[in-house]
Amino acid sequence: MKPHSTTLRAALVAIGLVIALGGCTHNRSMGTVVDDHTIEMRVIDAIYAAPDIGQESHIKVESHNRTVLLMGETDTAAKRTKAETLAAGVFNVERVVNEIVVAERADIGTRTNNSWLTAKVSTRLMTDDSLPGFDMDRVKVITSAGTVYLMGDISRDEAKAVTEIVRNIGGVDKVVTVFDYTD
Fold it and tell me: What digits encode the pLDDT tens for the residues 5-46?
């Protein structure tokens, strides 16, 4: 590839990220947000390029403040461990939380239910009266196989309240928190 076209491609990607992330109102800097998206892309590339993990795995990757959360399914414990090792080796990754389960790939029904549950949890957190003034932009909600993962920057009291609310939502089997505490 020509150096000129590589530079142009990098510039277009950077512009796209700035536009896409321009509406984010959380307390993280634009640089941190871009770093996390870059980490996610690099971890996904590393995992799915590994011939011993392959396409039979369904692994989701989220990054927040350089902490990588791995979720989903793979068919062997060795692949689960390999995914974690690959994620930990990516530039700028400071911590890996490996929640990959050894199981069959989730079917389309399960994935649809995950999306529905994520929307249900997010809506509840935005509208719950016990969280006056709570800023949902500081919490990311991800669901995999009935487990709700919560990531973000909040106080310990907020984390306790949010976790309790989510635990009591119908359809939630388990709650895993990966918070950076602000206090």
Answer: 555 555 555 555 554 544 444 578 899 899 999 999 999 999
Q: Strand 101-102 to strand 67-74: parallel, antiparallel, or no bridges (unpaired)?
A: parallel
Quick one: CATH architecture of 108-181? 2-Layer Sandwich (3.30)
What class has domain 28-101? alpha beta
Interstrand relation of 67-74 and 58-64 (parallel, antiparallel or unpaired): antiparallel
Q: Is the pTM of this model over 0.85?
A: no
Long-range contacts from 18-21, C-beta under 8 angstroms, 24+ separation: none
The amino acid that residue 169 corresponds to is I
The H or E element containing residue 6 is helix 3-21
Cα distances (angstroms) measured from residue 87 to each of 23, 68, 90, 105, 151: 28, 7, 5, 20, 17
The structural domains of the chain, with segments of one domain joined by +, span 28-101, 108-181
Determine contact, residues 34/75, Cβ cutoff 8 Å.
no
Q: What string of DSSP letters covers 119-168?
A: HHHHHHHHH-TTSTT--GGGEEEEEETTEEEEEEEE-HHHHHHHHHHHHT
